[in-house]
Each structure stands twice: as C-alpha cells, then as structure tokens.
Amino acid sequence: MKLNGAAEQVPADPAQRLSSALRAHGLTGLKEGCLEGECGACTVLLDDEPVCSCLMLAAQAAGRRIETVEGLAGGSGPSDLQRAFVVEGAVQCGYCTPGMIIAAEGLLRRTPDPTEAEIRRAIAGNICRCTGYANIVRAIARTARERRAGERR
Questions:
Q1: In the predicted model, what is the mean pLDDT of residues 58-73?
Q2: Which of 28, 63, 96, 139 fits a disulfide with 84 by CB distance 3.0 to 4.6 angstroms?
Q3: Could you tell me whether strands 2-3 and 6-7 are parallel, antiparallel, or unpaired per DSSP bridges?
Q4: Alpha carbons 50 and 43: distance in angstroms, whole number
Q5: Dihedral of alpha carbons 10, 35, 133, 115, sign
C-alpha cells in the first residue's frame, strides 16, 4: 500500500483489521475504540475518503493509498488543521482527535468552503464525549478560512 505517501509493506494476518495492522506497524495515532465502525476513532483516509479502518481487513488496503493522522503532520510539524484543533481548544482527552482530524481533512479536500451543516455532517460518524463539538466545528471552519485566504495570496 501507499502509506502516508510512501510505498510500504504492512505485515498482517489474513483476517487482521486494517486498524490493528497499522497500529502494529507503529502508527498509533489512530485508536481502536468500538471495533464496529460507530465511534470513528480509527478513521483513516483511503484514497482520500474517510473510512473506519476497523471495518476493513488489512488485505483490502493492498495497492491503495492510506493516510493517517501521522501522515498529515509530515516532517515539518503539525498540519494547519492539527494546529487549529489546539488553538480552538478542540482537544480534551484526545481519544477522538485523530479520527476527527482525518474526517475533517477528508471534508476539506472535497469541500474547501464547507458550511457549518456540512462540517457537522462530515464528523457525524466521530464520537467525542468531552468537547461538545462546538470547538471542533470552529477548528475545521478556521482551517477552511485560512486555506482559502492562503490561496488568494
């Protein structure tokens, strides 16, 4: 698979979930919460679309592009979206944060100028028990505004 921009061999048992294979490969940003696709903590981008990696077998990712929260950060530090989550106080316990950020990044790649309703719909599959979502929505909207302003320069 192409993992965070690089061709990678990710060893996995035939019936192993993608989420656990990625974690065993050292990508522990994604979390395994419910293992039923209900909480969103394990969200990754699969060919630029957010998916719950706990619902996929690792073998299903062969030949595909996978991006995790670690891939968004890159070598130069946190991404603009990750920084916005910190600035807006959109992180508390942090368990949902990687999945929220990946779901938000998927939205912003498809929809650079999302409405609040579109933001809320995009993160609807991600459960947060700490923040009440308002700060998360603000962080995503902030990133969208900043990206658009940067494009105009």
A1: 95
A2: 139
A3: antiparallel
A4: 6
A5: positive
- The C-alpha atoms of residue 18 and residue 12 are separated, in whole angstroms, by 8
Q: Which helix (H) or strand (E) holds 6?
A: strand 6-7
For residues 132 and 113, what is the distance between their CA atoms, to the nearest angstrom? 23
Q: How far apart are CA 77 and CA 5, in angstroms?
A: 16
Quick one: what percent of the chain has pLDDT higher than 90?
90
Cα-based angle 59, 64, 65 (whole degrees, multiple of 5): 125
> Would the pTM count as exceeding 0.90?
yes
State the average pLDDT over residues 67-92: 92
- Which of 124, 126, 131, 60 has the alpha carbon at shortest distance from 89? 131
DSSP letters for 83-132: HHHHHTT--SS-SSHHHHHHHHHHHHHH-SS--HHHHHHHTTT---SSS-
Name the nearest CA neighbour of 133 among 117, 146, 149, 148.
117
For 97-120, the pLDDT digits (tens) are 999 999 999 999 999 999 999 999
Residue with tokens 């690792």: 58
Which pLDDT value is given to residue 76? Answer: 81
Residue 33 DSSP code: S
